[in-house]
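haha ok so turns out i had the wrong file open the whole time. this is the CORRECT one, sorry everyone. sequence first:
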Amino acid sequence: MKKNQNPIGGVNKTRAFTLIELLVVISIMGVLAALTIPVLGKIKEGNYKKVARAELGQIEMALENYKAKYGTYPPCNQNPASANYEPAIMNQLYYELSGTTNNGSAFVTLDGRSQLDITPANEVKTAYGVEGFVNCAKGVGDEVLRAHNFLPSLKESQYNTYVSNNLVRTTELVTSVGGPDQQYQPLKAPNLNPFRYLYPGTNNPNSYDLWVDICIKGRTNRISNWSRQVQILH
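then structure:
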């Protein structure tokens, strides 16, 4: 708003913005918004990938520490029909890297967050096609072999327990960023995006394949341990 001096009476009169001036201001704001929104979208997409890459690196470090203790990487899912998912999607990394104890009736993770029953049915075998876990406390007294939690800094947003298609309540390692597209549901549950694991790997035959797919605006971005570049699949 502008005020004009009245040279005769000394009275200030307020001059209103004209319609044309208002339209010009609105147009400028519209142009700035059109330029800013795509940039912000790109920044957000970049952050999704950056976080997922950091979380993948966290799991890689845990896998190397696991190998240093046990001389091998964790086994992958040995049950191709497990819950009607591809084996790489549903894997036992959470249990192997978090460590478990066997109390006779169930395998319980050291952090107490998850368990898989042994009796009356072995849920571990149903889910993953194995009898139990390598990283599990065994023995008593001086003969005890202690399990170890290789993921002590794991956040709640990085794992999720859900009921799989074969009705086993399992816990999987997931990326905290989710899809982020809501329609992308590899575990058939909203916003749960698992890390996939194969050992031995196809891309890394001497070690393992670890990756996660992030669907952004209908495009699959693959973040993996065999390429430092994000792969755009389609």
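The helical segments are 19-70, 93-98, 123-128.
again sry for the mixup
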